[in-house]
Structure formats: C-alpha cells, structure tokens
Amino acid sequence: MHDIRELTLGEAINEALAEELGRDQAVFLMGEDIGRASGIFMVTKGLQEQFGKDRVLDTPIEEAGIVGLGIGAAMTGMRPVVEIMFSDLMLLAMDQIVNQAAKMHYMTGGQAKVPLVIRTTIGAGRGAAAQHSQSLQALVAHVPGLKVVMPSTPYDAKGLLKSAIRDDNPVIFLEDKMCYSTVKGRVPDQEYLIPLGVADVKRVGQDVTLVATSRMVQVALSAANILDQDGISAEVVDPRTLKPLDRETIVRSVIKTGRAVVIDEGCLSYGITGEIVAVIADVAFDYLDAPIKRLGAADVPVPMAPVLEAATVPNERQVVETVKGLFGRRY
After folding, report:
1. Which end of the chain is more exposed for a tag (fewer CB within 10 A), N or C?
2. CA-to-CA distance for 115 and 166, rounded, in angstroms?
3. Gap between the Cα atoms of 220 and 59, Å rounded
C-alpha cells in the first residue's frame, strides 16, 4: 500500500533530490548556500544534514566556476546537480553552458557525456526587480545539445527532476520561484519517473486549446474555469519540457478544438510562444477556426514596483478576453 501526500512544489523537488542522492552515489549537489542555509528558497532543506557536506556542497559565489566544475565532474562519471539561484545569474555561466556542456558530446564524436542538471528559478512576482525576475527559457531552449524542463505541479516536478538527473545529457531545470510554496498537489510516495519530452493535458476541453508553461499553467486553469461559466470549454496542455517538445500532443489538441492560445512568462518577442505557434501553424493550419493567439511578458525589464510588475505578466483576465475574442465576442 502506497500513500499519496499533498506536497508543495518545493517539497516535491526536495524529495526528488533526496531520493536520487540515496539511490546513486554518483549524484551530488552544488550551489550557493544550498547546504547550511538550505538554499534561498529552502528547497534543499535538510539534505546536507542527511547526506553530508561531500554530497551537498556549499560553493563560492561564482556561477561560471560552479557550472564548470559540474561539467568536469559529469564528464568523469558523476551526476552533479548544480543550483543557480536565479536564471538571471545563469548568464554569468553561459559560455560554460552553451559552448561546453551543450557541445561536448557532439565535439568528441560521442565519446564524452555530460549528465549535468542545472536547477534555476524563473518568474516575476517577488519585487526582485530586473536582474532577479527574468524568465530566460527561450535563451537555453535555442541551444542544440541542451534539454529544457519546466514543471508546473509538484507531481511533475518530482518525476521530471528524477528523470533529468538520470539523463546522460545536460538538462536545464527551470522552477518558478512563485510556485515553491503556493502550488500544492498530490504526490505518491513510491518511485516514479516522468519521461522528458511528454506533454500533459491538465484539463480536457472541446472549444479551445490553452498551451501554457510553468506558472502560466495555473493561470490557464483558472481562466478555463471562468470560461466554462460562459459556455466555453477550454483544454489546457502543459508541454512540461521545451526540449524535447511534444509537438504531437499539442497539435492533436488544436486539431480537436480548432482554436489555440499559447501562454508563457518569457518576453513575448522572439520567445517560446512564437515557437509553439509556429508548430501549430505548420501542422494544424487547415483545422483552425480562428487565428492563433499568444500571451507573454511585456518586452520591458521587470519592474520592482508590485503594480507595474504585475502588469508585465500574463494573467487570467487577459487569457479570458483573448479566448472570447476568438469567438467574436466583444467587451
């Protein structure tokens, strides 16, 4: 008999890390303040006490060095999980990520593997301003050789992180900082994995497809409930991983509903929404009953003031209005 508990997203990630540390001696964690201080969002709480300082390493404030050490360790057979506090700070290690981790397998003719996971946070909402609030998933998703994961629920976060740690390729694992304590869900206590590259239909509907990533899945689900009251049945599809992207599930949903809205917290221009819209248009164009619409963050640095910050991020009202516009409804 197995128990199903309600965990927060942060607790589910902590549990995944603990299970993988216990399962495989090659797994270890590195990051700034992840040990004694339990990480800036307390996600690694208790892990250093349980597994020791040799498996959960506090590092200097040196993102390029941390990632470089992780790449070297991965190439020698270890499975490091490196935490970068904010995806904004991942930019300090982009040469290591883009030119080393992503390309090493290719440039050695398959002789070298880099089973490295880089955990980092995305998303606005904490008043952390322009250098600690960005959602930079489009940058890493653009790079061949990287896998990119964006969980939206505790169940998905745990199963995807365990799969990422066991993957032989470098994986960028993006966690929305606003979801750590606010998003809760049922998680079984037994072992399970979620394969990378498989989307999930979070809500079945008939009239419109909402393709949403990370925290925007919660926004889409909330909007779908409002739309349901107005007689519009919305299906919510969560890609879960951007690389590889499950094109088939997305396209199948749009073919069924005939309408699509794509929602991501990254900036609207040149971002994830454009890529997913292109996939839909390429394969499902003949099935569309209305133009594809997309919602993303405003193309501005993230403001610190709460009112301005909130205005830059897609919300349920915008989703509802956009969907109703597909049916010719006016306000």
Report:
1. N
2. 7
3. 38
Q: Stretch 248-252: mean pLDDT, rounded?
A: 98
Domain boundaries, the chain: 4-188, 200-326
State the CB neighbour count (10 A cutoff) for residue 143.
18
CATH topology of domain 200-326: Rossmann fold (3.40.50)
* Class of the CATH-defined domain 4-188: alpha beta
User: Of the residues 2, 105, 132, 142, which is catalytic?
Assistant: 132
pLDDT band (50, 70, 90) for residue 4: confident
Decide if 2 is catalytic. Answer: no
Residue 149, beta-bridge partner list: 173, 241
Residue-level pLDDT at 151: 98
- pLDDT tens for 26-53 read 999 999 999 999 998 999 999 999 999 9
Res 331 pLDDT > 70: no
Per-residue pLDDT band for 1 (boundaries 50, 70, 90) equals low
Q: Which residue has the tokens 């955990």?
A: 119
The gap between the terminal CA atoms of the chain, to the nearest Å, is: 53
- Whether the domain at 4-188 and the domain at 200-326 fall into the same CATH topology: yes
Sequence letter at residue 179: C
Q: What Cα–Cα distance (Å) separates residue 239 from each residue in 95, 118, 192? A: 27, 19, 19
How confident is the model over 121-151, as pLDDT tens digits? Answer: 999 888 888 889 899 999 999 999 999 999 9
Burial level of 291, CB count in 10 A (0-12/13-18/19+)? exposed
Neighbours of 106 (CB within 10 A): 11
Asked if residues 11 and 42 have their Cβ atoms less than 8 Å apart, the reply is no
